[in-house]
Write a structure and sequence with these properties.
Length: 345
């Protein structure tokens, strides 16, 4: 849906102004050719987008945006397919803050087209799909060149054989949760520790800076999901605080909220169902042991089903009382993150 360079050309470059001009011209060309958004955003194109995201090692936010876009396009989006695509897609880029290279480096190395060319060579993309250029994806990337293999690694020298994002499931997240696997230190890919539970982002940040979080802990931040927030704001501050305290290789963070593209460490978001919808995350207590196994795509709360059921009857769901107007309607109608935080019809 974007012309070459749309995602990588720095804002201060004159090429960005040129690109904007060409984008306007191309919109008119698409109108003349009667190429509509749904002609471009097909099931195959969405699978290509997931594959590209895996190779780039990008943001967990794509696991919100893509399901929501798929829903609007009438395309079924299966979170399980994310892991299947991840298993076969090598991670070729480590962009800051997860790695030493920056977006401008990616742009100079050939941009997203060069990354697509590398993974297309493995047969991982459907290159016949239509794009906003009026040409197929294969035609778009035919002349792309990887100009710096230290920025865009070749598949043979990939950072990992698997993609940048993983979807975990288990009794803590029956409908799934998401982690930026490419930003997780190897020693945190498998982790087990006691929960420290907080009812909001602000509570968690205060605890982190007060030194209440120690090595091995699993910080749980709930009631920050699409409905519970409401609005699902980014949990960038607590993840930054954990990293700033030097704990990103020793402490995991789990939330029904979301993160920014700057996430690093074992930060697991989009826990679904969310707390305000009665998801198991609403019933976690301090000291509960939580097991995380990213390679196995599992997340487990080590509490018996009987104990969880008892807590459901004794622990009330906490809903914000001061929500009014449009936001109150949104909170009542929005889905959990696994569906892309869409408005339930």
């Amino acid at each position: 849906m974007g012309l070459c360079g749309n995602g990588t050309i720095p804002a201060v470059y004159s090429a960005r102004i040129e690109l904007a001009k060409h984008a306007g011209m191309q919109v008119m060309e698409l109108v003349r050719k009667n190429i509509r958004p749904r002609d471009i955003m097909t099931a195959a194109a969405i699978r290509n987008a997931i594959t590209a995201d895996m190779a780039l090692g990008c943001s967990t936010n794509s696991m919100l945006h893509l399901p929501a876009i798929a829903n609007e396009c009438g395309v079924e989006f299966d979170l399980e397919e994310v892991n299947r695509i991840s298993e076969q897609t090598p991670n070729l880029c480590h962009l800051a803050p997860a790695g030493p290279t920056y977006m401008e480096d990616l742009n100079e190395a050939g941009g997203v087209y060069a990354v697509l060319k590398e993974i297309a060579s493995l047969g991982l993309l459907d290159t016949t799909v239509m794009t906003c250029t009026g040409k197929t994806l294969g035609e778009n990337i035919a002349n792309a060149t990887n100009r710096d293999t230290s920025v865009i690694r070749t598949p043979e020298n990939a950072y990992s054989k698997t993609g940048g994002i993983a979807v975990l499931k288990g009794n803590l997240a029956p409908d799934g949760c998401v982690v930026k696997r490419s930003a997780v230190a190897p020693e945190m890919l498998v982790h087990e520790g006691p929960a420290k539970v907080y009812e909001s982002e602000e509570e968690a940040i205060a605890a982190i800076y007060a030194g209440k979080i120690v090595k091995g802990d699993v910080v749980v931040i709930r009631y920050e999901g699409p409905s519970g927030g409401p609005g699902m704001r980014e949990m960038l501050s607590p993840t930054s605080a954990i990293a700033g305290m030097g704990l990103d290789k020793d402490v995991a963070l789990i939330t029904d909220g979301r993160f920014s593209g700057a996430t690093r460490g074992a930060s697991i978001g989009h826990v679904s169902p969310e707390a305000v919808s009665g998801g198991p995350i609403a019933y976690v207590q301090d000291g509960d042991i939580i097991s995380i196994n990213i390679p196995a795509y599992r997340i487990e709360l080590k509490v018996s089903p009987e104990e969880l059921e008892r807590r459901r009857t004794e622990m009330p769901i906490k809903r914000k009382e001061n929500i009014t107007g449009y936001l109150k309607r949104y909170a009542a109608m929005v889905s959990s993150a696994d569906k892309g935080a869409i408005i339930n019809r």
